[in-house]
Amino acid sequence: MQTAYHTPEKLRLEDLFKHFPYYRHTLLDKYERWRRVADILKVSKKAKQRLDWIIWYYEHEGNASLACRHFGIPGKTFYKWFKLFDERNLYTLHLLEDKSRSPRKKRGRTIAPDVLERIIAPRKSNMRYGKMKLKEIYEQTYGETISSWKIQCVITDFKLYYKPSKNKRIQAKRRKAQKKKKTIDLVKNILPWQKRAGYIICLDTIVIYWHGLKRYIFTAVDKYGKVAFARMYTSKSSKNGEDFLLRLHYLLDGQIPRVGHDNGTEFEKYFKAACLELGIEQYYSRVHTPKDNPNNERFNRTLQEEFIEMKGFDPDPLIFNRDLTEWLIEYNFRRPHQSLNYKPPLELSKVLPMYASCTSF
C-alpha cells in the first residue's frame, strides 16, 4: 500500500535505489541507510552532524537530555532540528541545512533629495567624470564627506551614462557571462569514481609567430585519460573551432560528454552551435586564470618542446598537420606518461577508440 508521502514532488527512497542499485541489494539497518541517503543527496557536513544527533537520540531510547549532554548542545537547538526531520520522507534531510539569517524585510537605500541634486547636476554637466572625481568636487563645494559608492548608486539608478546604449550592451554581456558554467565548480564537486578517462576534454589554443605570420594550433587533452589531439589552422575563428570539435568528436567516437576551455572567441558562435547539436556541455575557465586548465597547459608545453622545437615548424598547415599526426600517434600509443605510471594513454584509456588510422582524419 502506497502511503501519502510518496508524491511525485518528493524524493522517494525507491528513486534513490533506482539510480544506485548497490544499495538495493545490501542489507543495512535503518540508521545506516539514513547516512547513505545523506551521502547521495550531498548534504553538508553540518547537516550530517545534526543527523547524527537524531540517530544517537533514537539509539538511546529517545532520551533527548542524554543526547544533548553527549553532544554538548542545548535542548532548544536539538528540538529545533528534530522537528524538521521526518524519517518517512528522507527528502527532509535538506531541511537540516543552515538557513539564511538575513532579515525578510531589508532597509532600502535612501538618499536625501538635496544630496541627489548635488550629485546629478555636476554629473550631467561633465558626463565623463567618474565617481571619484565627483566625490572630490562634492566635498570641495559643500564641505561634506560623501562615499564614492553612493555616487555610483545615483549614477546607476538614474542611468547617467555618457553612452547609454554602450552601457546597456556591457551589462547584457555581464549577465550572459554569469550564466556560464565554471570549470572550477565542476572539479570541486567531482566524485572519486567519476575521475576516469573521457569525463572532460580540455581545449586550448597556441599562437605561433613565424616571420610575420600567425598560426594557431588547437589542442585537446583528456583530463584524466591524457589522450591528446591537436591541429593547426591559419585563424582562430569559431568556424575553425567547430571544425576541430567535429574532428575530435569523430576521433573519440562521439564520447565527449563535456569540454572545458577559456573564454576565447574560437569557442563561440559556430563552436557553441556544434556543442549544442552534439549534446556537449561547455565549462569555462575563469578570466586570466590558466590554472583552471592545467592539463592542457602542460600538453601545450610538451607539444612545443618535444615537437615544434625538436622537429621544426612549417607554416604550411598541410605539411605541419601531417607531421603532427605522426607525433600524436607516438604521443598516444608509445610515449610513457609519468601521471599514468609510465604507461601510454591508449594502453589505459579503454573507453576511447582512437587508433592510428583515425588520427590522420
Structure description:
With 361 residues, the protein is α/β, with parallel strands linked by helices. It folds into three domains: 13-96, no CATH class; 113-166, no CATH class; 185-359, Nucleotidyltransferase, domain 5. Helices cover 48% and strands 9% of the residues. It has 16 helices and five strands. It has helices at residues 13-19, 30-41, 45-59, 64-71, 75-82, 113-125, 131-142, 148-157, 164-178, 183-188, 238-251, 270-278, 294-311, 317-333, 345-348, 356-359; strands at residues 201-210, 213-222, 228-233, 258-261, 281-284. A five-stranded mixed beta sheet has the order 3-2-1-4-5, sandwiched between helices. α3 (45-59) packs across α4. The radius of gyration is 29 Å and the shape is flat. Residues 1-14 and 351-357 have low confidence and may be disordered.
In short:
The chain contains 16 helices and five strands. With about 350 residues, the chain is an alpha/beta fold. A hairpin with a 5-residue loop joins strand 2 and strand 3.
